[in-house]
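Example 9 (inverse folding). The structure is encoded as follows.
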């Protein structure tokens, strides 16, 4: 199984009006190509970064979200976090997400059992810029047999790759572990926003545990009403004004003083094994921004893949065309209709270019294999699609 470090990724390029290839995040991405290409050389030292993992309380058998945050605002353009969760306490991890100040933060997380390996990038250094907003979040499910009052440390390793600022200066990073204490009466399941605005009057279910008619809900910067729905055993939330829930802090409180909070992540969960072997266990962390089209992805001799997500509140029709950069005889065109909240991987042939158009703006990331030998990567003369996402778990009336 390959980890995220061996899958450099970049926002998909966009074809400029003059026909030349431009990048979605123009000059700022030059450093990223140097980084993922293995550029070496001395770098200046930047300020020290104090990273801390949150201390959480949640009942046994329920989900809890851990937040990795900076002690003070800083400009972070790239970093990596590796976490291993205690097998005696947890049964699963899910819903990684990265946040930035301008919606350009993106990355990839490899999940293997209770092991998380997450890379993240922001060309303009938007990660960590806003105080009170985590750098990275991930949710873990507590085992149902864990005794109340049990406490375990939650560690994070930030040493596996340099943390850099937009000038390529290296941050020295120290990490303070967090903790989980099993207890309380309320929890929130992973909440996926999928990005994009929602209209006033939209209803979604906030799932979790320990909810009742006495539970109260708050969402930072969002006008809404909430009531307990006994049929779903969830809090039914109705938006009173248009809102984008991406990165919003959601808090549920019970009268006994128990409280659970979670930041809504922009990427939907992936529910099946990818048909592309090198992407086994890889979860894209899409940027909040959706891009106008067309988009262009260029692949080298070992191919690659593009991950596409529909952030709109409507289905989107996607058209992909692949043609050789040099002298291959093949030309492939594929039409897809992505459901609301759907996303998937699409493989690119060796030494080829993929052009993507869609009926609405979409989110897209390009994955370029690193250190892969030719037999390990599929080079179909057709698109190999690997996608099976559930209907939006956050939304009821779609």
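The amino acid assigned to each position is listed next.
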């Amino acid at each position: 199984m390959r980890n995220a470090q061996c899958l450099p990724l970049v926002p998909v390029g966009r074809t400029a009006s003059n026909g030349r290839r431009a990048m979605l995040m123009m000059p700022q991405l030059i450093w990223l190509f140097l980084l993922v290409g293995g550029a070496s050389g001395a770098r200046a030292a930047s300020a020290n970064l104090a990273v801390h993992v949150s201390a959480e309380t949640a009942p046994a058998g329920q989900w809890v979200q851990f937040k990795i945050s900076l002690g003070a605002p800083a400009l972070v353009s790239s970093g990596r976090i590796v976490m291993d969760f205690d097998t005696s306490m947890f049964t699963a991890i899910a819903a990684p997400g990265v946040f930035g100040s301008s919606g350009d933060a993106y990355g990839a997380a490899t999940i293997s059992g209770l092991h998380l390996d997450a890379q993240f990038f922001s060309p303009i250094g938007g990660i960590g810029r806003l105080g009170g907003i985590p750098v990275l979040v991930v949710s873990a499910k507590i085992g149902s047999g864990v005794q109340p009052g049990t406490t375990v440390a939650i560690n994070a390793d930030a040493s596996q790759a340099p943390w850099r600022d937009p000038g390529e200066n290296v941050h020295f990073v120290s990490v303070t572990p967090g903790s989980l204490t099993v207890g309380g009466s309320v929890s929130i399941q992973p909440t996926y926003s999928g990005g994009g605005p929602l209209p006033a009057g939209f209803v979604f279910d906030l799932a979790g545990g320990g909810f009742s008619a006495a539970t109260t809900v708050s969402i930072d910067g969002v006008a809404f009403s909430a009531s307990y729905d006994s049929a779903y055993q969830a809090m039914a939330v109705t938006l009173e004004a248009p809102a984008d829930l991406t990165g919003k802090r959601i808090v549920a409180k019970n009268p006994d003083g128990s409280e659970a909070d979670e930041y809504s992540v922009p990427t939907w969960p992936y529910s099946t094994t990818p048909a592309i072997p090198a992407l086994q266990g890889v979860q894209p962390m899409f940027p909040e921004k959706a891009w106008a089209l067309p988009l262009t992805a260029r692949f080298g001799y070992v191919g690659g893949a593009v991950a596409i997500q529909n952030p709109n509140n409507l289905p989107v029709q996607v058209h992909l065309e692949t043609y050789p950069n040099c002298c291959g005889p093949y030309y492939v065109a594929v039409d897809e209709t992505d459901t609301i909240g759907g996303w998937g991987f699409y493989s690119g042939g060796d030494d080829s270019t993929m052009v993507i158009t869609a009926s609405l703006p979409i989110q897209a990331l390009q994955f370029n294999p690193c250190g892969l030998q030719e037999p390990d990567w599929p080079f179909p003369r057709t698109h190999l699609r690997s996608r099976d996402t559930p209907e939006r778990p956050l939304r009821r009336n779609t």
